[in-house]
Structure formats: C-alpha cells, structure tokens
Amino acid sequence: MAATAILMTGIAAGVAQAAPAPSASAPSASASPASASSASMKVEDRYTIDLHSNVRGAPKLKSRVYGTAGRGAYIDIDCWTRGQDVSSGGQHTNVWYQGGVWMGKPMKRHLGPGVWVWGGNVDTKGDPQKGIPHC
C-alpha cells in the first residue's frame, strides 16, 4: 500500500517517553519468519515502509515522532492494534503496526522495538495483515 507521509519531521534526539531508545545496531539483510497467531500460519514479519513515513511513539498522529523513514526502510512487525483513523495518499485505515524499524538511507539506524507505523504506510496485503497477532 503506497501512501503519502503525514506530518513529516526530523529525527528526535532523546528518546525518553513512550518508545524505547533507538539502538545503533543494524539488522541482518535477510527476512526472518515469525510464528503466526490465530491462523497458525507462517508469515514474514518484515515489511517495507513508504519513504518519508513517520515512526511514532504511539498509534496516533499527535504522538512523538522518533524518525522519518528513508530509502529501504522496513519494520519487523511484532503486532498490530486499532489506533487513530487516518486518511492519506488514497489510503484509509485505523490499523497501526508495532515493532522494530530499520530507518533506511541515509539514517542507517534501528528504532525500537516498540515503535509504531501507520498501516497505510506499511506494505502489507491488507490491514491488519493476516497472521500477525493483535497487541
């Protein structure tokens, strides 16, 4: 699902509130499978994030922005929840995904786990993606 970024800002320096501090380590290049929830099926837990998408501290637009996704950004999804309903770039959903985010170029750093990305900015086959557990 392609979508236009909402409320773009730069990278926040000190992470102290809702989301854990960013780590400097980069994840491996290969996607790792995750155990699925209710459907007992295997799903890839790594999904690309649209360029310029905000990575947030909570599943709502007024939450703290910890960074903005660059080229090659992806999220290793841990779970999903229903948060603020957002319409942008032809997408409309209230699904938000939580996990760890590789910010892509030029940042080349990892945020999380525990950060949030709006479902319209995560390239899944639907919201919520089948096989990903509810938070």
Shape: globular
Query: In total, how many beta strands?
Result: 8
**Adjacency order of strands in the biggest sheet:** 3-6-7-8
Radius of gyration (CA) equals: 13 Å
Number of helices: 0
Assembly level: single chain
Fold and architecture overview:
- The protein is 0% helix and 39% strand.
- The protein is mostly beta strands and 135 residues long.
- It has a four-stranded antiparallel beta sheet, with no helix packed on it. It has a two-stranded antiparallel sheet with strand order 1-2. A two-stranded antiparallel sheet has the order 4-5.
- Mean pLDDT is 76; it is low at 1-43.
Summarize the structure.
With 135 residues, this protein is mainly β.
